[in-house]
Design a protein that fits this description.
heterodimer; A: alpha/beta; 8-stranded mixed beta sheet; 4-stranded antiparallel beta sheet; B: alpha/beta
């Protein structure tokens, strides 16, 4: 395990190479183009979002970090899709790609499609490819059709503006004809919706005056203010205490029925996924390793990583003496191996695992797994 | 002088005894230095800990669990109360006297990223406490450290490396090795796994358990994650707004939680099974500010069973059989 040290010369060579690619991708991002160029069709009309073979790379001086390396999954209408994985597995980068909020110019969508079914102002349904949309058109969707709830409510609210000012802004941006009174009424309505007891007082308060749970409620109300059809919740409860977490999860579940939309829930907590999600996507080192319905993932996990992840979490009900643990660490994101990324940590490797990366194997209509272990089964019958 | 401080009623079996410990932080002072407003971080906490046991302390953020751990180590000077460690009252020990005690009491901090000095190598970090406390002769220090690294699952070639080269789990292993380098008897683990991923968390918890058996350590395990606490502890203390609301053995607490807060805390944990239906008690409102705690029972603002008496009188913390202590008016009535 030699450490990965680079000389100055090597770093400069990488940086030069990266600059070329980044320049090309940046120019593509800010190009002027007609709407027809990024219109597509959904593969399945029941889905609201389809991510197809998405590659999001970070061009660092140490090399290209393939944070998202060929991710595909769908979000059906009115469903909650949970994306679960450890830190650095690319779950947040996937959501940032959907929102087109990647740190430019280092972070770039390299290839792939993100198809989203959007409603135009006049009510016609159009399918956009978010990955190809130029940045000047992205506001049609971002914050409007797709809203996001961020992890850290403290750092995502602006400390120098009152909650009211920040909430009103959403209405002003997405509805240019709105008056001040309209915006205020809408904001107060939103604060009411998320269960804030004294909306008038909170409206005039600054973020520092609120507790963590209240701030997260404000963030949720901000996301709801534009009637989005998809909410991306990126670790919405990680910074909160368990009792407050229970409140927020309860609220999210409640809201999903009220707003008639879909939720993409990103978390590392399997418990939250089991409780909230209808479909689960398990990610590891930038790839989807298993996806299926919540029942399939929890009652019939197939990938050794999913199994290990479930066994390594202590629960209140288990009584064993030692915890199962997955040995080793997540591999270095630069210079990923050609074979299965989980091979070094896997306990049931077979000879084939040293070969190429396993493809997605369909186990049931909704259950997919990327592991060589199940290829044999499929061939045999 | 130290001999005088040996307490008469001290339990000879306990390695650590905390009696009515209280820690206040001044918030506002007048010009003359008189404290006008204070924050009571730890209020009247008592417990005993026997050698080889693990006490788990759970509670939400701001409930004073970290302050309690630090006060026991005297990283904060307690405002009142007593800390009795191995029969000695260490509450008023000077820092020179504490130096001897620190050999026996160590702490593992929460954040492995900020608790390691970035400019020393792993070898340097681990050798320093050994040389300072003269644990082994100078010539044997390196061998001793390498042996310790092996015990904590660190490879020997890490000796020359710097902390920034390691992942979170490896750094936490270094922190554990540093705490154990002086052969302590009591280790206070202040949220040692909350900054780590699930698969790494399991590795660290298993390591802590193994080391406890090998070295006969006593742990005080502070965490907000109940499932982790359940896994590692023998005794559990539940804290809310600075005071201990319930204390008992793991079996007692989990099979028969007495305090409404403990019940709500248990029910709030998401269970990793989609078919599992739990009668969830969702607490209303937020945790009150510890600078301005509510009158009477501190939990009454959020308690689903609160009565009039709860708003006025602070419930007494007492034994409800088999050393299962709790502070709640509802229990007194039964």
């Amino acid at each position: 395990m030699a450490a990965n040290y680079l000389s100055g010369k090597e770093i400069r060579a990488i940086a030069k190479e990266n600059k070329k690619v980044m320049k090309r991708l940046e120019a593509y991002k800010y190009r002027k183009c007609d709407e027809s160029e990024y219109l597509t069709e959904m593969k399945n009309a029941e889905n609201i979002l389809e991510i197809d073979d998405l590659h999001t790379y970070f061009f660092t001086d140490q090399g290209v970090v393939k944070a998202v390396n060929g991710v595909s999954f769908d979000i059906p209408k009115n469903a909650t899709v949970g994306v679960v994985g450890e830190s650095g597995c690319g779950k947040s980068v996937t959501s940032m790609s959907v929102m087109r909020l990647l740190q430019a110019p280092t972070g770039q969508i390299y290839s792939g499609e993100i198809r989203f079914k959007a409603k135009d102002k006049d009510g016609t349904v159009k399918t956009y490819d978010i990955a190809k949309m130029p940045m000047r058109d992205i506001f049609k969707i971002r914050g409007n059709e797709i809203a996001m709830i961020f992890q850290e409510p403290m750092t995502s609210l602006n400390p120098v503006f009152t909650i009211g000012q920040q909430l009103d802004e959403v209405t002003f941006i997405h509805d240019p004809e709105a008056t001040k009174e309209d915006a205020k009424a809408r904001s107060i309505e939103m604060l009411n919706l998320v269960g804030i007891a004294m909306p008038e007082r909170v409206y005039n308060a600054f973020p520092h005056e609120l507790s963590g749970g209240m701030r997260q409620r404000v963030m949720i109300s901000m996301a709801l203010a534009s009637n989005p059809r998809l909410i991306i919740a990126d670790e919405p409860t990680t910074a909160l205490d368990v009792t407050i977490q229970a409140q927020i999860l309860d609220l999210l579940r409640d809201l999903k029925t009220k707003i008639d939309g879909s939720i993409m829930l990103i978390t590392h907590d399997l418990g939250i996924i089991a409780e909230m999600a209808d479909y689960v996507v398990v990610m590891y080192a930038g790839k989807v390793i298993e996806k299926g319905t919540v029942q399939e993932i929890f009652h019939n996990p197939m990938h050794p990583y999913t199994i290990g992840l479930q066994k390594s979490k202590p629960t209140l009900q288990s009584d064993s003496d030692t915890l199962f643990n997955i040995p080793g660490n997540v591999p270095n994101p630069i210079n990923m191996p050609d074979h299965c990324y989980f091979k070094e940590r896997c306990t049931n490797c077979i000879g084939k695992c040293s070969g190429e990366y396993p493809g997605m194997i369909q186990v049931s209509p909704t259950h997919f797994v990327a592991c060589h272990l199940y290829e044999e089964d499929q061939k045999n019958g | 002088m130290a001999d005088k401080k040996i307490i008469e009623a001290y339990d000879p079996e306990a390695i650590l005894e905390v009696r009515n410990l209280r820690k206040c932080f001044p918030l506002k002072k007048t010009l003359t230095g008189k404290v006008t407003q204070e924050l009571i971080a730890v209020d009247d906490v008592s417990f005993k800990l026997k050698p080889g046991e693990t006490l788990g302390i759970v509670g939400e953020s701001g409930c004073g669990k970290t302050t309690l751990g630090r006060a026991i180590l005297k990283l904060h000077q307690p405002t009142s109360g007593k800390i009795i460690f191995e029969g000695q009252d260490i509450t008023d020990f000077k820092s020179s006297q504490m130096r001897e005690i620190r050999k026996k009491m160590q702490i593992i901090f929460q954040d492995p990223y900020s608790s390691l000095p970035p400019r020393s190598t792993v070898g340097g970090i681990l050798s320093e406490p050994v040389t300072v406390h003269n644990i082994v002769p100078k010539a044997e220090v390196k061998d001793y450290v390498l042996d310790l690294m092996d015990k904590c699952g660190l490879r020997d070639y890490y000796y020359e490396r710097y902390p920034h080269e390691f992942s979170g789990g490896q750094r936490q292993r270094i922190c554990i090795a540093r705490a154990l380098s002086v052969n302590p008897k009591l280790v206070i683990c202040d949220e040692p796994v909350s900054a780590l991923d699930v698969s790494i968390q399991a590795q660290i918890i298993n390591l802590l358990k193994k080391l406890q058996q090998d070295m006969n350590l006593t742990y005080m395990f502070i965490s907000h994650d109940l499932s982790v606490v359940k896994f590692i502890s023998d005794k559990i203390g539940v804290m809310y707004l600075g005071s201990m609301v319930e204390y008992g053995t793991k079996e007692e607490i989990f099979s028969n939680p007495l305090h409404p807060y403990t019940q709500a805390l248990f029910s709030a944990i998401p269970h990793p099974d989609p078919n599992f239906k739990m009668n969830r008690i969702i607490l209303k409102g937020d945790i009150p500010s510890p600078a301005n705690p509510p009158k009477g029972c501190r939990f009454h603002t959020r308690c689903p069973y609160a009565k009039d008496i709860c708003k006025e009188v602070t419930p007494e913390y007492k034994d409800h059989g088999n050393g299962h202590c709790a502070a709640c008016h509802l229990l007194d009535e039964q």
